[in-house]
Write a structure and sequence with these properties.
Number of strands of chain B: 7
Largest interface: A-B, 25 and 18 residues
Structural class of chain A: alpha+beta
Order of helices and strands of chain B: EHEHEEEHEEH
Number of helices of chain A: 17
Number of helices of chain B: 4
Oligomer: heterodimer
Shape of chain B: globular
Strand content of chain A: 15-25%
Largest sheet of chain A: 6 strands, antiparallel
Helix content of chain A: 40-55%
Radius of gyration of chain B: 13 Å
Number of strands of chain A: 23
C-alpha cells in the first residue's frame, strides 16, 4: 500500500515534470521566435503561469532612470500596479541578488500599508525572481498566489531557469535593437556624407559592390552632365578613352574582387566633348559588420598638370636630342661629379659603352697624373659655374678606356635641374686639329724658308751683277736694303700665317734695317693691322723714306728727328692716315731728279694701297702723307 | 780690323749663288773660306778633316738637316753660326745655338760671326 502510494506519487511527479519541461520548451520556442520585446514578454508570462502553478504574474524592468517598471502582467489591477510602482527590494546596482519567496504575506517583513495593499488585491503568497543579463540586474518577474504557498525546491530551480531564458531572450532582443539603431545611424551618416560630398570641390563617387554607379557628387555629375535620376543607368566606363578603357576596367575589376584600394589614371570624355585626365583614388566601403558595400573614390582633374609634365618631358627630350646630335662629346655630371648622361659621341670618343659611363665618377676620364687635382677644379667650377672653357688656357688631356690619352678642348656650362645643379661638358678631341695645325705651321715655315732663301739667291745674283758692272757699293747697299725691307715684311706676315701684320711692328722692324739710331724716330698711333699686300707696300715706302732721311734728310746730321704718326678713322669705311714728318735736319730743297725712291713712293705705293701719297719738301724737313683705305675686318687691335 | 779676318770659316750652303755671295762677303772681311760645301757629305768630310775656326752652316741642305755636320763640329769644339730662313723655331735649344736670318747683309754676317767667335763678348 505504502509502495503503491509511493508509485502513484512518483507518477504524479513524473507527469508534473513532463508538464514543466513542455512549458520550458514552449518558452524557449516562443522566445526564439519572438520578433519584438512584446512577444518576449508574452511568452515569458505564459511560461511562468504554465509552470510555476501561480494564478497571476508580472514582468518588470528597470527604466533608464533605474526605476522598476511593469512591462507585462497577468491578473493585476491598474490601481495595484500604480500603488506598488517603483517598489523593489533591488536597484540596478544590486549584484547577483537571490530570489525572494514569500509563502505568507502576513509573515513577511514588509511595511504594513504594502502588506494591506497586497492582501487587498487578493494575494497571499508571492515570489521575486531577478532577471540578469551579462552579470547585471535588469529587472525581475513576480509570481502571485491567492493562498499561502510552500515553495518547493524544484519550483525555485524552475523559476531561476525561466529567469535565465528570459534574460537571454531580452539580451538578444536588446542586441538586435542596438543593431537596428546602428543601421539607422549608418543610413543617417551616409546621408550626411552625401550632403557633404555633394558640394565638395572635388569629384566624389560611390559605387555598388559590382562597380556600377551609386552616387556622384554635384561636381562629378556636372563633369558628365548626368542627372541624379539617371545614375542607376549611367555607365561611366563608356566615357573612357578607348585606349585607356581596357586597363582601367581591368584594374577596377581587380580592386573590386580583392576589395582593395586602387589608384587609376585615365582620359574621360566630359560633357563638353573634351577628354580630361582624371586621377582616381578609390577604396572599398564596408558596413559596420564588415560587409563589402562597394567602392568610394575621389577623382582629381590632372589634365593641366599632365600637360605641364608632358611639356617638361618634351623639353627634356629636346634637350636630350640636342645633346645627342651635338658634334662634340657631351657629358653631364651631377654636383658630386657622377656622370648622369653621355651622348654617343662621348662614349665613342672615350672608347666606352654608354652604359659603362653613366654612374661613374667623371674623374675616370681624367689622366691619372691630373686626377688628384681634379676634385678641387670641380669644386672651383661649382663656386662660379659660368659657361667657360675648362683649364684656363692650359693644355688638357683626357683618358680613353684603353688608357691612352688625347689632347682635348672642354667647354663647361651648368644648368639647374630638378635633381640639382648639373655640369655639362662638351669635349672635343683636338688631336687631329693639333696635327693639322702643326702641319700648317711646318708648311708655313717651309714657305718662309723658301721665300727667304729666294731673297738670298736674288741678293747673290745682284751682288754678282753689281760686281760685274762695276756699280758702286752704294747702289749695292741700296738694293740690299730694299731686299731686306721686303724680307722684314715677309717675316712678320709669316708669323701671322700671312693674314696681316701690325703697322707698329712693321715700322719698327723696317727702321732697324735702314736706320743706325732708331731712337731719333718717334712712332705714335693706335693699333692698326695691315693685310699682306698693304704691309709689303708700306714697308717698302718706309724703307725709302729711311734711306732718304739718312742720306739727305733729318738723319743726315746729328740733331734731326722724325715723327712717324698714324691714325685710323672709325667709320664704316675706315682709312689709314700716316704722316712721316722730318724736322731738325739740314735745310731742305726739292730734289732735282726723281729717283727710284720717289717712284716707289708715289707710283707703286699709291697703286698698291689704292690711296694717295704726297711728298712735300718743306725747308724744315720732308713731310710725306699717306691716305689709304683700310679693310674693315683688319681694323681690330691685335 | 775685323775679328773674322784671317779666320778659317767652313761654309756649308747648297744654293750655289748664295754660296758664291757668302764666299765673296767673307773674303771681303778677310777670312779664309773652307768649302763652300754643297752637300752634307762634303760638309762632313771638311768638318772632320780641315782646320776650322768657325762654321757658317745652312740649316737645310738639299732637304737634309745639317745636324750630322754640326755634331762633328760640336765634338771638335768648333763654334757654329746657323743661317736659316725658318726663324729660330727650328732650334731645339735656342740659347746655345747662334743663328742668322736669311737674307743677311755683309755687316750683319760680320757681327754675328764676331759674337760666335767671342761668346763672352
Amino acid at each position: 500500500m505504502q509502495q503503491q502510494t509511493a508509485v502513484r506519487a512518483d507518477g504524479e511527479a513524473l507527469v508534473h515534470q513532463v508538464d514543466e519541461l513542455t512549458a520550458l520548451y514552449r518558452l524557449t520556442n516562443h522566445l526564439y521566435r519572438a520578433r519584438s520585446l512584446h512577444d518576449i514578454h508574452d511568452a515569458a508570462l505564459e511560461a511562468i503561469l504554465g509552470t510555476l502553478g501561480c494564478s497571476r504574474a508580472s514582468l518588470l524592468l528597470f527604466d533608464e532612470a533605474g526605476v522598476m517598471q511593469f512591462v507585462g502582467w497577468r491578473g493585476l489591477s491598474d490601481s495595484y500596479r500604480a500603488a506598488v510602482k517603483g517598489h523593489s527590494p533591488w536597484n540596478p546596482k544590486t549584484v547577483d541578488p537571490d530570489p525572494i519567496f514569500i509563502g505568507d504575506i502576513d509573515l513577511a517583513d514588509e511595511p504594513e500599508w504594502l502588506k494591506a495593499r497586497i492582501k487587498a488585491e487578493g494575494i497571499r503568497a508571492l515570489a521575486f525572481i531577478p532577471l540578469i543579463v551579462q552579470g547585471a540586474l535588469i529587472g525581475k518577474f513576480m509570481t502571485y498566489y491567492d493562498r499561502s504557498h510552500a515553495f518547493a525546491p524544484h519550483e525555485i530551480d524552475l523559476a531561476v531557469t525561466i529567469a535565465r531564458q528570459i534574460g537571454f531572450a531580452l539580451e538578444r532582443a536588446g542586441a538586435e535593437q542596438a543593431r537596428r539603431a546602428a543601421e539607422a545611424e549608418l543610413r543617417e551618416s551616409e546621408e550626411r556624407f552625401r550632403l557633404m560630398s555633394e558640394n565638395a570641390p572635388v569629384m566624389i563617387w560611390m559605387s555598388h559592390p559590382d562597380g556600377s554607379c551609386l552616387h556622384l557628387n554635384r561636381m562629378l555629375r556636372a563633369f558628365w552632365k548626368v542627372e541624379e535620376e539617371q545614375l542607376a543607368t549611367f555607365d561611366w566606363q563608356r566615357t573612357l578613352h578607348p585606349e585607356d578603357a581596357p586597363e582601367i576596367a581591368r584594374l577596377m575589376t581587380e580592386a573590386i574582387a580583392a576589395q582593395a584600394n586602387v589608384r587609376l589614371k585615365g582620359r574621360y570624355l566630359n560633357a563638353e566633348g573634351r577628354y580630361r585626365v582624371l586621377e582616381t583614388n578609390a577604396q572599398p566601403r564596408f558596413s559596420p559588420k564588415g560587409e563589402y558595400l562597394g567602392m568610394i573614390g575621389v577623382n582629381v582633374d590632372i589634365t593641366e598638370r599632365e600637360q605641364t609634365e608632358r611639356e617638361l618631358r618634351d623639353s627634356e627630350e629636346r634637350f636630350r636630342l640636342a645633346v645627342e646630335a651635338a658634334p662634340s662629346g657631351m657629358i653631364m655630371a651631377d654636383a658630386e661629379g657622377r656622370i648622369v648622361m653621355v651622348n654617343a659621341q662621348a662614349a665613342k670618343l672615350f672608347g666606352y659603352g654608354r652604359g659603362e659611363l653613366v654612374g661613374q665618377p667623371v674623374d675616370l676620364l681624367v689622366p691619372p697624373r691630373y686626377q688628384q687635382g681634379h676634385p678641387q677644379h670641380r669644386a672651383n667650377y661649382h663656386r662660379y659655374p659660368a659657361a667657360r672653357p675648362m683649364g684656363d688656357g692650359r693644355e688638357l688631356f683626357a683618358r680613353r678606356k684603353d688608357g691612352t690619352e688625347m689632347p682635348v678642348e672642354i667647354s663647361l656650362s651648368s644648368m639647374k635641374t630638378a635633381k640639382g645643379i648639373m655640369t655639362l661638358a662638351a669635349v672635343v678631341d683636338i688631336g687631329s686639329r693639333k696635327r693639322a695645325d702643326a702641319q700648317r705651321e711646318l708648311l708655313l715655315a717651309e714657305l718662309n724658308h723658301r721665300v727667304k732663301n729666294t731673297l738670298a739667291v736674288v741678293q747673290g745674283i745682284a751682288r754678282q751683277t753689281f760686281r760685274a758692272s762695276n756699280a758702286s757699293s752704294e747702289a749695292r747697299k741700296a738694293f740690299e736694303g730694299r731686299l731686306f725691307a721686303l724680307s722684314v715684311a715677309h717675316s712678320l706676315l709669316t708669323r701671322s700665317n700671312w693674314e696681316d701684320a701690325s703697322l707698329e711692328q712693321l715700322a719698327t722692324d723696317t727702321l732697324k734695317v735702314g736706320i743706325p739710331n732708331q731712337a731719333r724716330v718717334a712712332l705714335s698711333g693706335p693699333p692698326v693691322v695691315l693685310p699682306p699686300k698693304e704691309a709689303v707696300a708700306i714697308v717698302l715706302a718706309l724703307h725709302e723714306l729711311c734711306t732718304n732721311a739718312v742720306k739727305y734728310g733729318a738723319l743726315s746730321n746729328d740733331t734731326g728727328r722724325i715723327d712717324l704718326g698714324w691714325s685710323r678713322s672709325d667709320d664704316e669705311h675706315p682709312r689709314l692716315k700716316l704722316v712721316w714728318r722730318e724736322h731738325g735736319g739740314p735745310l731742305v730743297s726739292p730734289p732735282e731728279h726723281r729717283g727710284f725712291g720717289s717712284f716707289l713712293l708715289e707710283r707703286t705705293l699709291a697703286q698698291d694701297l689704292d690711296g694717295s701719297v704726297t711728298a712735300e719738301f718743306r725747308p724744315e724737313g720732308l713731310v710725306c702723307s699717306i691716305d689709304a683705305p683700310l679693310p674693315n675686318q683688319s681694323g681690330s687691335p691685335r | 780690323m775685323s775679328v773674322v779676318a784671317g779666320k778659317r770659316i767652313l761654309v756649308v750652303e747648297d744654293e750655289a749663288l748664295i754660296a758664291a755671295m757668302v764666299e765673296d762677303m767673307l773674303k771681303d772681311l778677310g777670312a779664309v773660306v773652307v768649302g763652300p760645301a754643297s752637300t752634307i757629305e762634303k760638309g762632313l768630310a771638311l768638318a772632320g778633316s780641315e782646320a776650322i775656326d768657325v762654321a757658317l752652316l745652312d740649316v737645310n741642305v738639299r732637304d737634309q738637316r745639317i745636324d750630322p755636320v754640326a755634331d762633328v763640329l760640336r765634338g771638335r769644339g768648333i763654334p757654329m753660326l746657323f743661317a736659316t730662313g725658318y726663324g729660330s723655331n727650328i732650334f731645339a735649344d735656342k740659347r746655345t745655338c747662334s743663328w742668322i736670318d736669311k737674307p743677311y747683309t755683309q755687316e750683319t754676317l760680320a757681327s754675328a760671326l764676331a759674337k760666335v767667335l767671342r761668346p763672352t763678348g
